[in-house]
Amino acid sequence: MSRTRRPPQSIELELDITDLSHDGRGVARHEGKAVFVTGALPGEKVRAKVQVSRRQFDEGSTVEVLESSPDRVAPKCAHFGVCGGCALQHLAPAAQIAAKQHTLAENFERIGQVRPERWLEPLSGEPWSYRRKARLGVKFVPKKGKVLVGFREAADPRFIADVSRCEVLVESVGRRISVIAELMDSLDARAQIPQIEVAAGDDRTALVFRHLQPLGEDDRARLLAFGEREGFAVFGQSGGNDSVIPLDGGATELGFSLPAYGVDYAFRPLDFIQVNGAMNQRMIDHALALLDPGPHERVLDLFCGLGNFTLPLARRCAQVVGVEGEAALVQRAHENARRNGIDNADFHAADLTADLRDQPWLREGFDALLLDPPRTGADATIPQLPLAGIGRIVYVSCHPGSLGRDAGLLVREHGYRLVAAGVMDMFPHTAHVESIALFEKR
User: Which element (helix H / strand E) includes 277?
Assistant: First the structure.
């Protein structure tokens, strides 16, 4: 167990920042020890206050920038540095992408001991008002005499940041944070609502209010009136995901479309969908161009969710099989295939981290594979797959470390080449690295 101590408040150091950490902090060294500095950028000299000292490293925050990076920009959000929703608004968007590409390359080399034969052009888009899915914390703070609504504080995640608007949430929500907080303050149950889930489809945005006690009739009326006035679909959630219900008794689903593939998706507010809708469309185009499925080929899509990649793939190949661990999403994928008249896509529910030997779909032949696993990656899945006939793999990753590890596994143990790789800026202004890689059989 690492020992942590707080140094005297007066300890300040002048530091040369040489790198950016995985969570967006500047990295320096002092007397041979790493120091992680919030608010500092590579190439800068800063005066930093050391706030936490550990055996292997120290942590601190920037007091003054003595020599500024040419990539430093003024944050757009007035709450940047207090709110923990963003970590990199002070870094120019192009430099953010370059830093993420560097992180990906470093993880390939350090963890997987592999390098791509070529780097893909980074995929980027609009860096503001992009976030269509989010969980906002809610907290009634008697000392402030009001309810706070927003992301957690950067310095201490136990607290909700006191914000009035958010520049990365979809505009329908981001510019109404203070209005939503005022609504919460008007409720009798204001101390019994710990979070609000945001989910935006193409045509309407849902707010799901998690309530620890049943809502009274007056509160239900206030929530419904707010939804009607501000244009939100209002849901209540008393327990697990299956307890989410529209307070007006209306439609339970939202939707988004991919016109290039003639596909419309229906989803429920707590279903997993990609956070960035515009980048999702570009990512699907990117993945299908790399995988390049032929009209006579069979494709396996693992961790398929509600069919995000599966249905567009069905428009391009003979047959596609999607597999997902969450049964509710598999049901949604079936429904979306029927809704779109797609009859060459099959879906199965299976825990892809478990023993797959009894899965019937595993014995079917496939020409290509698309992987889109969670942060933990696919190292438990890959060795069980019928890779002998699979000539191409496209791997979509939300964690560069697990992609680096799995790339090494595919290259050294299963006879693939890492042909190409690159980042996709799914989460601008955060340190999150979304990436994509193409593997081909040697």
Answer: helix 277-291
Per annotation, catalytic residue among 83, 86, 166, 398:
398
| 160 contacts 137 by C-beta, under 8 angstroms | yes
pLDDT digits (tens, 9 = 90+) for 60-115: 999 999 999 999 999 999 999 999 999 999 999 999 999 999 999 999 999 999 99
415 Rama sector, left if φ>0, alpha if ψ -120 to 50, beta otherwise: left
The reply to whether the predicted model has a pTM over 0.90 is yes
Tell me the per-residue pLDDT of 202-228, one tens digit each, with 9 for 90 and over.
999 999 999 999 999 999 999 999 999
Helix (H) or strand (E) holding 418: strand 416-424
Q: Is 304 a catalytic residue?
A: no
Q: Domain 97-126+272-441 is classified in which CATH homologous superfamily? A: Vaccinia Virus protein VP39 (3.40.50.150)
CA distance 426 to 432: 8
| Fold of the 133-254 domain | OB fold (Dihydrolipoamide Acetyltransferase, E2P) (2.40.50)
